[in-house]
Automatic annotation (TrEMBL):
<feature type="domain" description="SHOCT">
    <location>
        <begin position="254"/>
        <end position="281"/>
    </location>
</feature>
<dbReference type="Pfam" id="PF09851">
    <property type="entry name" value="SHOCT"/>
</dbReference>
<dbReference type="Pfam" id="PF14472">
    <property type="entry name" value="DUF4429"/>
</dbReference>
<feature type="domain" description="DUF4429">
    <location>
        <begin position="139"/>
        <end position="228"/>
    </location>
</feature>
<protein>
    <recommendedName>
        <fullName>Tat pathway signal sequence domain protein</fullName>
    </recommendedName>
</protein>
<dbReference type="InterPro" id="IPR027860">
    <property type="entry name" value="DUF4429"/>
</dbReference>
<dbReference type="InterPro" id="IPR018649">
    <property type="entry name" value="SHOCT"/>
</dbReference>
<feature type="domain" description="DUF4429">
    <location>
        <begin position="12"/>
        <end position="106"/>
    </location>
</feature>
Amino acid sequence: MGDVLAGFHAVWEFESDSVLIRYERGIRTPKLFQALGERRIPLSALEEVTLTTGKRGTVALRLLPRPGADPLMEAAAGQLREGFDPYRLVLPAERSTLAERLADELKGLLAESESGPADRYLVAAPEAPLQFKAYDGKASFDGTSVQFRWSWTGASTTKWKAGDQSFAVADLSGVEWRAPESPQGHLRLLRRSADSAESAQPDQDPAAVVFGRGYGPVHESLPFAAAVLAAVRTRGPVPVVPAPARRDPADIAERIRHLGELHQAGLVTDEEFSSKKAELLAEL
């Protein structure tokens, strides 16, 4: 197809076998989109495409993924609000003609592909390592295991007595995610063992972390849940992105000293000096 469709918060590139979605990083772009960055959606992962009239002179192009094709949407389990739907592109009405043509072309391609529930994930999961801060602890995932470290200000007595937890992917059967804005928002790890405490309230279950206002936001906790779910489904690790190597403090100090000399000589402005110095310090 080779067409490009630019909408609010994202640009979709239509290829012969997939749709590449590049999300913007603007202030008004939902943080979930910014966290996802870029996603390639194979046409084999899609079931339907729709084009509807939106609000205030807009149209909305939406892709419907097949059940079980995308770990992110499976973890979300229909809890995402419309504005946080990563498969929905809102466009100015003047682009509706192009959007309609592309929607028709996609429908033709989808009619020739497999439909119904997918037997495996077809959309790549968010990459580990991932972490986020919940109300009662900190959750981290390195691709092979999940760790919960309890907060002394938020964790229940039950969790404190159980101690910090570590769960190998091989010991899990799934993930239960409840949106942070819901009354009992939480992320619970579902274990394969028959004696698990999954019937317990999340604040009393050592295999769950509880969200709260400002803790475990969607853009952090949902990609986390999706990555764990994908690893569980394949019973193996998801790709791990190596952490950037820390710079030698002596080298950073020398570069800042040199930058200061340039600043004093008038070769670097105050704004450039402050900005570059902050960048160097961030590398420590």
